[in-house]
Amino acid sequence: MSKLSRSHDIAHWDAEDADAWAAGNDKIAKRNLIWSIVAEHVGFSIWSIWSVMVLFMPQDVYGIDAAGKFYLVAVPTLVGAFMRIPYTIAPARFGGRNWTIVSALLLLIPTVLALWAMMNPGTSYTTFMVVAAFAGFGGGNFASSMTNINAFYPQRLKGWALGLNAGGGNIGVPVVQLIGLLVIATVGNTAPEIVCAVYLVFIALAAVGAAFYMDNLRNQKSNLGALAEALRHRHSWVMSFLYIGTFGSFIGFSFAFGQVLQINFLAGGDTPAQAALHAAQISFLGPLLGSISRPFGGKLADRIGGGRITLYTFVAMIFAAGILVATGMLDDAAPGAPSGAHMTGFVVGFIVLFVLSGIGNGSTYKMIPSIFEAKAQDEHAWTAEEKAAWSRRMSGALIGFAGAVGALGGVFINVALRLSYTGAAKSATNAFWVFLAFYVVCAVVTWFVFLRMQSVRTVAGEHVGRAPAPVG
C-alpha cells in the first residue's frame, strides 16, 4: 500500500501507554515530528520574510524610510499572533495531517504577494503593509504544529520533543535570512524575487511531505471551551506573560536585528547595497543560535525544572540587555558613526539575547504541559486516562494562546525600536532600557510564582500535590 493511499487516521492514541510506545508508536510520533518541523520551518521563514525584504528596499527606490520598515516587519508579527488562536484549535478539528497540508499551502498567498510587491517598487506603502500582513499566516503554523506534537508525545519526553519541534521551526528564520544573504552576495540587493521563488518550492515540499507521512489523531479534543477552561487557571496567564519575554524576544529581535545593523552600517558610510550585505552577513547568526539553543532549554527543563531554568535565563537576559544599554550609551556619547568596538558590543549583546531567548523558549514550553499534568494528578476521582486526556487538552489549548501572547512581544520590540530611533536621540538606547526593565519584571514573576510560592508552601507543611513542583 502506498504512503498516500494508506489510512492516515489513528482512532485511539495514548502517548502514555509504554507498551504501545515501545511497540511502534515512538516511530509514528517521530515521523510526524519530522514533517511537522519541516512545515513549521517553512512557516517561520514566510512569517519572517519581510525581515529579509527590507534589506532589498533602499529608500530612494521604494520610498520607505527606516521607521517605516520597522512597522513593515511588525505587521506580520501582529497578524501571526492572532492567527495562533484558530490554528491551535485546527489540528483536533480537522486532523494534524490535514491541517498541516492546508496551512502549508496557505503560505503560497503571502509568498506570491511579496514577490509581486517587490517587483513593483512604485507600490504604495499602504499596499506594502497589507501584503506584509499576509505573511502572518506563517506565524499561525507554530501553534498548530506545537499543539499537534504535544498530543503525540508522553509527558516524560515533551520537553525534548516540543523543544526540537519549536527549534526546528525557529531555524526557518535564519534560513530565509541566509538565502537572502546568498542572493545579495551573488546578484546584489536588486533581485528579491529570487528569495520568494525559492520558497514556492519549499512550500510545495512541505505540503507533499505532510500528505505522505503525517497522521490525524482522531481522539484529540481542542476547542474554545478548552481554552476558556485553561485560562481559568492563574498559571496560564503567568505562562503567557513569561512567553512574551522568551519567544517575543526571539521573534522580535529576529525581525529587527538586520534592520538595526543596516542603520548602523549606513551611518558608517556604507552604500545601501553594502549596508544590506554587511547586515545580512551577521543578522542570521542570532536567530540560528537562538533556534539551536531551544531544544536544549527543553532538555534542561526536563532534568532541572522549567521554573528554575526560566528564572536563570531571565537573570542572564538582564545582563545581556545591560551590554546593549552600556554600548548604546557609549555610542550616543561619542561623535560620529558607531566605532568597531561599539558594533562589536551591539552584536555580542544581541547574540547572547538570542541564545538565552532560545533556552527560555524551550523551558517555558516544557512548563505548560507539566503544570496541567501536575494539576490532573491532584484529581483523585479521575482515571489515569481521564487525567492524561485533560492534561493534553489543557496544555494544547494554552500552547496556542501563550504563543499568540508571546508573539506580541515581537511587535512591542519593533515598535519600541521605531520610537527610539525617531526620538530626539535618534538611537536604540531607550529601547534597550525598556528591554532590560521588562526582563527584570519577568525574573521577579518567575521567582515569585514558580519558586518562592512553592518553597513557602513546602516549609509551611502544606500538601500541594505535584503542582507546581514539576516545573520548578
From TrEMBL:
Membrane-spanning residues: 33-58, 70-87, 99-119, 125-143, 164-185, 191-214, 241-263, 275-297, 309-330, 342-360, 397-419, 431-451
Main localization (coarse): membrane
Membrane topology: Multi-pass membrane protein
Family matches, as InterPro entries: MFS, MFS_trans_sf, NO3_transporter
Subcellular location: Membrane
GO CC terms in record: membrane
GTP-binding listed as a keyword: no
GO molecular function terms listed in the Swiss-Prot or TrEMBL record: nitrate transmembrane transporter activity
Pfam family, one: MFS_1
Keywords carried by this UniProt record: Membrane, Transmembrane, Transmembrane helix
Keyword flag ATP-binding: no
Family the entry assigns: Belongs to the major facilitator superfamily. Nitrate/nitrite porter (TC 2.A.1.8) family.
Name under which the protein is recorded: Putative integral membrane nitrite extrusion protein NarK3
